[in-house]
Amino acid sequence: MNKPTIKDVAKEANVSIATVSRIINNGVGYSAKTKDLVMQTVQKMGYSPNAIARGLINKQSNTIGVLMPELSGLVSAEILHGIEKAAHSQGQSVIVCNTASVGGQTLDYLKLLQEKQVDGVLFTSQFLTHEYADFIKKMGVPVITISAYSEDRATPAVRVDDETAAYDAVKYLLQQGHSEIGMISGSPGDRLAGAPRIEGYKKALHDEGIPFDKTKVVWRNGFYFEDGREACSQLLNEHPTITALFAASDELAVGAMTSAAEQGIQVPDQLSIIGYDGTKLSAMVLPPLTTVSQNFIEMGETAATLLLDSIQTGVTSKGATIQHQIIERKSVRKL
Amino acid sequence: MNKPTIKDVAKEANVSIATVSRIINNGVGYSAKTKDLVMQTVQKMGYSPNAIARGLINKQSNTIGVLMPELSGLVSAEILHGIEKAAHSQGQSVIVCNTASVGGQTLDYLKLLQEKQVDGVLFTSQFLTHEYADFIKKMGVPVITISAYSEDRATPAVRVDDETAAYDAVKYLLQQGHSEIGMISGSPGDRLAGAPRIEGYKKALHDEGIPFDKTKVVWRNGFYFEDGREACSQLLNEHPTITALFAASDELAVGAMTSAAEQGIQVPDQLSIIGYDGTKLSAMVLPPLTTVSQNFIEMGETAATLLLDSIQTGVTSKGATIQHQIIERKSVRKL
DNA sequence: TTGAAAGCGCTACCAC
DNA sequence: GTGGTAGCGCTTTCAA
User: Fold this and answer.
1) Hey, of A96, A110, A138, A262, which one would you mutate to test binding to chain B, going by the most B CBs within 10 A of its CB?
2) What span, in angstroms and rounded, lies between the C-alpha atoms of B49 and B40?
3) pLDDT tens-place string over residues B35-49
4) pTM metric for this prediction
5) DSSP B215
């Protein structure tokens, strides 16, 4: 009543297990007749090869591990989607690890992935410390970061150029005639999505000869709706003359829209807002949000593909930069 | 230069591999001294057990498989989050399979999971046919569905009572004084999220003595923003006298809000809308959406916990019904 | 308290 | 073309 093994099939078909193995692996060295016989027996017995036993020999699990600090947001979901798509198209499975679930247990997850013998790891939206990088190096498998920042700067990365993207966002606002531009952001201490975007904002202003006023960038620790709501409220309070706003995420932008509404300020008539990310959310709010879009599905897909290449060829990937793009909708008014 | 195995550790520590095995598994039968020695060697050599080899013996992979038809939405993301949380807290890994990615390759994924020897499967947001159920039965592992519908009705399920939840939503509208109530929905042929919610709508109306008018429920094939926008536009067109609207998903509701705005109709002043799901999205739109919330994270968590129980005890789970809850916000007006 | 050895299901090498 | 068999890294009797 147990699951049939290759041995059972061999016995039933009166051939050796070696022959069965060759046949189910499309190897060479058997007659068409034996093949038919064996395939029929396989069918009849409902035999299915055991990937664990295979993995033990081949020293590979055909599985990659994905670490992300958040699972329930749109951004992670899209990245994961892209990863899954690319991975499965090459016969690899993906194990997800939510590194924030138990409070930054990244190292524990890494250990787990090591024990599970994953063939590679994708490190997402998180700061890759030396400690983590070293650990992964010891695991002896390739790693690629996705919209992450690595301390050693050497780990291959798939990402958009955050600074340029932010620059472009602010530039866009400038081009629409705005000059009093505020920003709401995540923490400047966040080297992934905080600092670079602020830097882009700063540069765009500077290139236009507008002095940088640090009180015009209000930040919170997260990039979520409530953060945006609060930050915008504070910003509008301190700088009522602002006509446009660059938000470092769509959720931040949407939070800002709510805050504006609460203060009776019309978007875009009295306040223009440009978001960042280009998640589905941006298209669903009113007015629809103009935003700089990062193609997260593509990021996931590219990263997974690159990782798989690395696994097969053994050569370290070079990473990739994904293009961003401004999606014009209705939250920015031309002055 | 290869990764050390248990053999290497044994040799280095001058003990047998049996002893090392006992120690790293917290077994019994060794002296404190040997333990120290071995642990130190393990440390020194950077030894990490090979879960694949273990799995071969224990006949279990400590991995569960999750099948979902969509990965990039808020609902799936939250369910997955819950699953991951519960699974990892019990030392299990989760493999995600996006059954829609290559066009309904559910059976292929099932085969894959079988080969990977997963200890159980979670079948999510999808119709569980006899074929799938049979296959899983042959795999010999427990399965639990999550907000899914199973053809055989016997598979343990974790879900909210959709019909009652829809009933409650419409009842709520009724209690606010509305009597001309429309509905926008997914397909009535969808036995998961289509038919039951329409049924609930119908019943609530009936209990209030309001005749059911089938032209007042407009449906599309999906539950997405654009579907809602279209459906609402059609509904408003055919039934301009409607004062309230029950949308079978938050995205549908938000699409309806956009459609209303396009026609210059104020929400909630001229049209009240109640959504369904209670995703983060519902809190972020303007006006914030009143909705019946499902707690997807809890669903995922519960299902994973139940599945793990089943795996350990060998007894089939009974499933669970998750409570829904109406979250009052500002999209419904009291008449 | 410890070690030797069988064997989990499979692949790959070597013989025939 | 086909079969025998060593051995992947580990757990688990059984003996000592």
Assistant:
1) A96
2) 15
3) 999 999 999 999 999
4) 0.96
5) G
